[in-house]
Amino acid sequence: MSVQTSYEKVSKIQSEAMFHRAKQVIPGGVSANIKYFAPHPIIMKSAEGSQLVDVDGNTYIDYLLCYGALITGHGHQQVVKATTDYMHKIGTTIFGTPHELEVTMADKLTALYPGIDMVRYTNSGLEATLLAIRMATAYTGKKKIGKFEGHYHGGYNHVLVSVNPDQKESGNEEEPNIVPESKGIPAHELKQTIVLPFNNIEATERLLRKHAHELAAIIMEPVQGGFIPAEQDFIVRLRELTSELDILLIFDEVKTGFRVHLGGAQSVYQIEPDLTALGKVLGGGFPVGAVGGKREIMMISAPTSDSDIFSVGGASRAKNDVVFHSGTYNGHPIVLAAGLETILLLEQDGCMEDLFMKTDMLRKKLEKLYHTYEIPMQTVGMGSIFNIVLTNHSIRNYRDMWQADTNLRHKIDIELLNLGVYIKPLNRYSMSIVHSEENINQTVIAHEKAIKNVLNSRGRG
């Protein structure tokens, strides 16, 4: 069998058997579609620091890190201690009422993020972007939103369009088609979203001016997919346009929050969005999300005594004047304890600088290696996240990725899984503060072996 579809060198017998069991009780054998890859995902049983161990006993250096959430690595002692100590201190796992850490974390986020005056908590990044869009439509009174081609904001109808559209379906690059990414999205909902071309300000401006009367907000990843940065001129002009046209600007910083700067990409670009969605790193390894933004926008979610939809039989006359937002686990105390300890670690002198230095070290070593084998390759990213793109073509947006040799990249990634480097094939790399120089050197050695194995299978050895 080819390296593209099998694990040839390392036993995955237990992983395969457990996956087949899972398929009997879980659709597709996975709890999230993104966790699947052929021939079957690898089932893990333990983790520590920068490493994962699967059910067959194989060890991996982990660069997926729960899709970037684990910036302190697996089971960091201080995060674990802070979490368990706090649970024992309060005597419960959750209050179901307001509590002190909600205020503590909100104070921290308003200090770190230029565009955040007030905060509401959710349980995921998806919920955060969903709430941000609801706030924007309520605040502006307009019903449509704009999103950029190639950007992902969660698996719900409004935004699950044109994330990874086929070339034949994508349409004109200056006015992309609206391409649904799932079954079950009603046609009338597709009409509520306008797809924009990323890093093309001239075409974006034309679309914004054309639809300004109906656009409540533009939602964007300031770093597309966590690795393609917005160009400075593009994002500055976008902020100017949205302000001029009374369109709110939403930064989805679920991937970039804390990973490119403690204050997110907005601190790097020195741009203040109207609303910001956070997740991943914010929870220290637990499920979390948050929406932050300008006070006058955030206050439309503030409840009043007669806006409670659950006061059965009671007055709820003002409910149509308030953006409803609720969730049993919003602001979970144990989650916020883990998140606060994570931020405390990242704030230590030199921590972020060291993380970025090691990320840059890995990027440079990998680029040098691939060039040695005359493979067109570049690393694209910002801060502690990047991707390996097998092309010399400039990467500025989703469509530029069509120039990359994803078939070769996929084969190398499968080989890396056999060689003890864990990355979901074709995914971005995330670094943690516990990845060591030894990890980096081992990773480069594994890449060289993977390249040789793939080239040998092609008869180029």
From TrEMBL:
Its cofactor is pyridoxal 5'-phosphate. PROSITE patterns: AA_TRANSFER_CLASS_3. Keywords: Aminotransferase, Pyridoxal phosphate, Transferase. GO terms for molecular function: transaminase activity. Gene3D superfamilies: Aspartate Aminotransferase, domain 1, Type I PLP-dependent aspartate aminotransferase-like (Major domain). InterPro entries: Aminotrans_3 (IPR005814), Aminotrans_3_PPA_site (IPR049704), PyrdxlP-dep_Trfase (IPR015424), PyrdxlP-dep_Trfase_major (IPR015421), PyrdxlP-dep_Trfase_small (IPR015422). The keyword Transferase applies. Belongs to the class-III pyridoxal-phosphate-dependent aminotransferase family. This is Aspartate aminotransferase family protein.
